Amino acid sequence: LQIFVCVLSSEVTIDASGEVSSNEHSLPNCVPQDLLDGQISTCSTYQIATLNASPRRCMHIESSPPIDEDEKPLVCTNFRHWHDGTNNCKAYVRNKDWCQLYGGLDYSGAGIPYNAHQACCICGGGNEVKPRLQIGDDVTVKLKSYEKCEKLKIVEYKLKPSFSYIVEVMKECGRNTVTVSKNGVREVKKEIQPGHRFTIDDDNPSSIEKQWNVELKKCRNGLAQQEFEFLP
């Protein structure tokens, strides 16, 4: 069984024939091809198999509703991995006078083709781009503290001095911690609690990527009644 599909809305249900039923119309936002070319590639790989059990189920894909690219703001991003030999753009943000003092220095002799005036947003440089992801997207991140968190969501854009995603933890995660109340009651909970926010300032798939939520749900009325099962 091979299914290729573009998500046209925030929720899509697919039957065995590959027909798509969506809850609203919007601009195309294609599911990564390796997600649905006969396999589902998430944290593990699953094959799709049909069943005849009851109640019937269809494969359901859910993501944030796509928006028109024209509605995304133009933002400034620092040159990725740039440094002046010692300091990166974040150091220029912390030291307000560095742009004036050192921003125009020539580092080409050290094999560094750009200076801070060219590479750093805080110094008037950087790249003007549109964010790759959007507010409301469920994401996975590669930061060590959060890479095992299952429920993360982009909740804001930080625009100055350079662009960052603000990500919120929606489900507790991290290491187990133990607290003891004044009454001596021990409580075990995860280190990172829902509502905690952090920033990702690198708009690159190696740092942050959209998460597609794929699950089995009851087939919608009017679709060919076909079930799917995930087999490890």
Structure write-up:
The protein is 8% helix and 34% strand. It has 232 residues and is mainly beta. The longest helix has 6 residues, at 89-94.
What's the overall geometry? globular
Helix count? 4
What's the Cα radius of gyration? 23 Å
Number of strands: 18
Largest sheet: 5 strands, antiparallel
* Major beta sheet, strand line-up: 15-12-11-10-16
What's the average pLDDT? 75
* SS content category: mainly beta
Strand content: 25-35%
List keywords for this structure.
mainly beta, five-stranded antiparallel beta sheet, 4 helices, single chain, disordered N terminus, 232 residues, 18 strands, 34% strand, disordered C terminus, four-stranded antiparallel beta sheet
Show the helix and strand layout.
Layout: E1 6-7, E2 11-14, E3 20-22, E4 29-30, H1 33-36, E5 39-41, E6 45-49, E7 57-62, E8 75-77, H2 89-94, H3 98-102, H4 116-119, E9 127-129, E10 138-141, E11 152-158, E12 164-169, E13 173-180, E14 186-192, E15 197-200, E16 208-210, E17 213-218, E18 229-231
Antiparallel strand pairs: 1-4, 2-3, 2-7, 5-6, 6-18, 7-17, 8-9, 10-11, 10-16, 11-12, 12-15, 13-14
Put the structure in a nutshell.
8% of the residues lie in helices and 34% in strands. It has helices spanning 33-36, 89-94, 98-102, 116-119; strands spanning 6-7, 11-14, 20-22, 29-30, 39-41, 45-49, 57-62, 75-77, 127-129, 138-141, 152-158, 164-169, 173-180, 186-192, 197-200, 208-210, 213-218, 229-231.
